[in-house]
From TrEMBL:
Residues 14-190 form the Thioredoxin domain. The lineage of its organism: Bacteria, Bacillati, Actinomycetota, Actinomycetes, Micrococcales. The keyword Secreted does not apply. One of its GO terms (molecular function) is isomerase activity. The keyword Transmembrane applies. PANTHER family: THIOL:DISULFIDE INTERCHANGE PROTEIN DSBE. It is found in: Cell envelope. Keywords: Cytochrome c-type biogenesis, Disulfide bond, Isomerase, Redox-active center, Signal, Signal-anchor, Transmembrane. It comes from the Bacteria. This is Thiol-disulfide isomerase. InterPro entries: AhpC/TSA, Thioredoxin-like_sf, Thioredoxin_CS, Thioredoxin_domain, Thioredoxin_ResA/DsbE_sf. It comes from Tersicoccus solisilvae. Residues 1-16 form the signal peptide.
């Protein structure tokens, strides 16, 4: 057996282990036609010195108003990527609304980023779950494309917390736990 073949045989279990632990890749290969890839619930906080530049995009809300990400500066902002057919999005909707209500008095802004729905479908979801914060109509991918460093394509829901400088301070892949998101918002308010 050659040295190269021996090395490949020795590395095979290691390489297989790396691929097996990627839950997003496993879901993508599953072929279960659920139409979304659920995040694993992982939370990532970015230290202030590693946050980089403020996010940049300009997009339109379902109500027709155009919002520029530069308008986020001076406020902690929560961006939640969702669509109506996403079961985890329905699970977290009530908690997101409760946090929006709790933190709006302190100037924290919430925006949904709807990646698939037309206005009527999004409005029905918002009525059903009592969501009152605005959402971007992002079927064209403007916001998603601007955020690909933080939001894997098709990983919905994903929630980002932006600090007062408009930089991503935290990310939750998958359903946002209310207590965790509350802590991430509070941490961003302090930074």
């Amino acid at each position: 057996m050659t040295a190269a073949a021996s090395l490949l045989l020795a590395l095979a279990p290691v390489l297989a282990g790396c691929a097996a632990s990627d839950s997003l890749a496993q879901q993508a290969r599953a072929g279960d036609e659920k139409n979304y890839i659920a995040g694993d619930g992982s939370v990532r906080e970015y230290a202030a010195e590693t946050r980089g530049e403020p996010v940049e995009f300009s997009s339109t809300l379902f109500g027709g108003k155009t919002v520029d990400a530069a308008d986020f500066r001076g406020h902690v902002t929560v961006l939640n990527f969702w669509y109506a057919g996403c079961a985890p999005c329905r699970v977290e909707a009530k908690d997101l609304q409760a946090l929006h209500t709790q933190f709006s008095a302190s100037g924290t802004q919430f925006y949904g980023v709807n990646v698939r729905d037309e206005a009527a479908t999004a409005a029905a979801f918002e009525r059903t779950f009592g969501t009152t914060y605005p959402s971007f109509e992002d079927r064209n991918g403007t916001v998603l494309l601007a955020m690909t460093r933080y939001v894997p394509p098709q990983s919905v829901p994903t929630t980002l917390v932006l600090d007062k400088q408009g930089r991503v301070s935290a990310r939750i892949l998958g359903t946002a736990d209310k207590g965790t998101l509350k802590s991430l918002i509070q941490a961003a308010q302090q930074s």
